[in-house]
Amino acid sequence: MGTARILAVDDQNYFRAFIEGILTEEGYTVRTASSGQDALHALEREFFDIVVTDLVMPGMSGVELVTMIRDRWPEQEIVVVTGVGDVKTAVEAMKHGATEYLLKPIDRSVLLRALESILQSRRLRDEHSRLMAENLEYMGMLSVYERAVGLFATHSLEPLAERVVEGLCLETRAQGGVLWAAHPDNADRLMMTSVRGLVQVDDEPEVLNVPTLVDCHPNLSDAEVGAFLAPCDPFTEEAQATGEEAWGLYVPFYEGGQLIGLARLSDKIGGDPFGDRDRLASEKFVELAALALANSIRFRGLERQSFRDPATGAYSAVYFKDIVQSEIQKSNRFARGFSILELSFEPMDEFRSSFTSVEIDQWLGAAVDELRRLVRITDVVGIHTKGTYRVLLPETDALGVAILKQRLRDSMHRHIDRGETVNGARPNLGIAAVTFPTDGSQLETLFRRLEARMDEDRQSLGRVLGLEAWPFGKAVDALMELAVPGSEYLMEQVTRFFIDEVGRRPADRGLLFFSPAGNLSEEVRQSLDRLRAYSPRTEIVLVSEERSDALPGAPMTSVAKHRVGTDCPFLIYFGEGPAYAVVQGQPGASDAGQTAVFQAHDRALVELLAFQLQSDLGIALTA
User: Fold this and answer.
1) Which residues are bridge partners to 342 per DSSP?
2) Does 236 have pLDDT greater than 60?
3) Looking at the predicted structure, is the pLDDT value of residue 171 above 50?
4) HSE of 370 in the Cβ direction (CA atoms, 13 Å)?
5) Do the Cβ atoms of 551 and 525 come closer than 8 Å?
6) Tally of domains within the chain
7) Same structural domain for residues 359 and 229?
8) Helical H segments across 483-521, by residue range
9) Is 287 left (phi over 0), alpha (psi -120 to 50) or beta?
10) CB 188 within 8 A of CB 307
11) What ranges in 270-316 are assigned the alpha helix state H?
12) Contact indicator for 617, 559 with CB cutoff of 8 Å
């Protein structure tokens, strides 16, 4: 006996009343319908456990009703009732999906047993389905936990982050994922640590500021928030206001109530949207993944602390080497570059003769503090030897590191002046840099090239002649003392070559200053005009009395020649790859077609000349 809901369908009122009376007495809830059409309307409005219907009815027959019910509600239980002489029709109804059939006249006990048998079978099926679902869910969660527990075997942050993103993509069937993890030295910054699949790396922020992120999405301040679907880019208030449709599943990582990571999953396989199942699966995975991530971040922090030079706080050479190797792998994966800068105070032996060991450590510690002040928090400062330090500069190109070198040179010269002793002990300052992958794609190649660059800096003509403190015009006069005979047409040929080179490599940043002997030739004009189609990132400066509106729209700046302090034609190019400088004397000084020419591939000298010009002309550059 049950409390199930029954729909009785028959065109004869007495049969409907008979069925309703029997079943109501047994505790069933009964509704009746006088036709197949009325039965369908009732099924649309209410749920019934069983439909009991006569087969022979005017209009829509019982077989037709059974067929339509099965088409629209495949799980509906149906009992058909027919006379003894119409068993063939009952069999036909069974073929169309009826659960059971009864013969008229209906016996009360037979009807009740049939209904109870159907309901009992249904309860068993429901219980079986529930147990199967629970078992599958348990097996699924067990699989999630097994994969999550495996994360604890990895202590290194980057490999762990890759495994975490891979695991989240597997659980949610996402084709793309990004993970930002807390910086070991600054809990308010999340650094992009791993990228997988269909992700445009250049469109992703390298660093997320946690307070700003929480301002945009206050729910991230609650460690109980769990995974959520974001309707737009969650990193800026401007993006939040765009009203874009949901496209990402965001999974926060918490440890001790602190947000230590954020993953974004996108592009689910098949184009389906992320649902509750994906959200729950990612949260289960993150329960253990967040703990593994927190352990890795702590391990990285302890590792960084244990590998620091006690006098300056700079990382040890061994640890710095490991960090650079990791950056090479990351840059290869994300198609990004970086630079390494070396700063050297030498000769330290002479410096030591004027100071105690404690005073030297204090002086060097202050120098490294000043170095840290001028670099970014994401840059890594390491010690190479006592008095020589190296800085890893992620996502910094050749021009960016050259700009930093100028700032460092000025700052460190002031620091040296402050530390000079009575007897004049004064270390020399050396600064050199290399860029990945232009100067090498392997760690040892980069370090060898860096040592060679430092030697070039020591032997640079600019240092030998003492040009560092001179303005550009005076430096040109000194260099022209070393000029040799050359073609007076060289300047125009070189100018066309480097303008075309800028067009061939428009994505590279650099500096190109050129001052022609007279007005621009038609060939040079054509080369400049072609640059409009490339939008180059190189800063091009024309030093000439010829007005810039002679080439409207050309990507360059024009300045008057008197501002550079020399009438000599010249070209200075500094950027990725080889650097070059050429200065030409006045033509006609000797043989026809000949003039005095100074040329240099000395990168340190060219860099010096380029930044002297930049300073003299007041052109602002950003690292």
Assistant:
1) 390, 432
2) no
3) yes
4) 18
5) yes
6) 4
7) no
8) 490-504
9) alpha
10) no
11) 276-306
12) yes
DSSP-derived pairing of the beta strands 557-559 and 539-543: parallel
d(CA 473, CA 480): 11
* 601 and 579 fall within a common domain: yes
Q: Which strand (E) or helix (H) includes residue 578?
A: none
CA dist list (Å): 464 to 281, 351, 402, 552, 603 = 67, 21, 20, 42, 14
Distance CA 185, CA 305 (A): 10
Give CA–CA dist 182/193, Å, rounded. 9
In sequence order, what are the beta bridge partners of 182? 190
Quick one: angle between helices 490-504 and 522-530, nearest 10?
Answer: 10
Using alpha carbons only, give the angle 466, 467, 469 rounded to the nearest 5 degrees.
100
- Single out the residue of 572, 571, 547, 574 nearest to residue 559, CA to CA: 547
Predicted confidence (pLDDT) per residue in 272-287, tens digit? 888 888 888 888 888 8
- Do 215 and 174 share a structural domain? yes
Q: 244, 275, 305 — which closes off a domain? A: 305
The percentage of residues in the chain with a pLDDT greater than 90, rounded to a whole number, is: 29
Q: What is the DSSP letter of 97?
A: T
CA 8 vs CA 17, 20, 270: distances in Å: 9, 7, 44
Q: Write out the two tokens for 485.
A: 């005979």
What pLDDT shows up at residue 388? 92
Taken in order 264, 267, 269, 275, the sign of the CA dihedral is: positive
Domain for residue 466, yes or no?
Answer: no
- Inter-residue contact 226 to 283 (CB < 8 Å): yes
128 in a domain, yes or no?
Answer: no
Q: Which of 504, 363, 477 is nearest to 427 (CA)?
A: 363
Question: Does 308 score more than 60 pLDDT?
Answer: yes
Q: Does residue 146 lie within any of the structural domains?
A: no
Nearest to 406 by CA among 574, 537, 206, 578: 574
pLDDT in tens, 128-147: 667 665 554 554 555 555 55
Domain extent at residue 380? 307-459
CATH value at residue 392:
3.30.70.270
Helix (H, G, I), strand (E, B) or coil at 573: strand
**What does residue 338 show for φ and ψ, rounded to 5 degrees?**
-155, 170
Residue at a domain's end among 305, 323, 347: 305
Pair 476, 455 in one domain: no
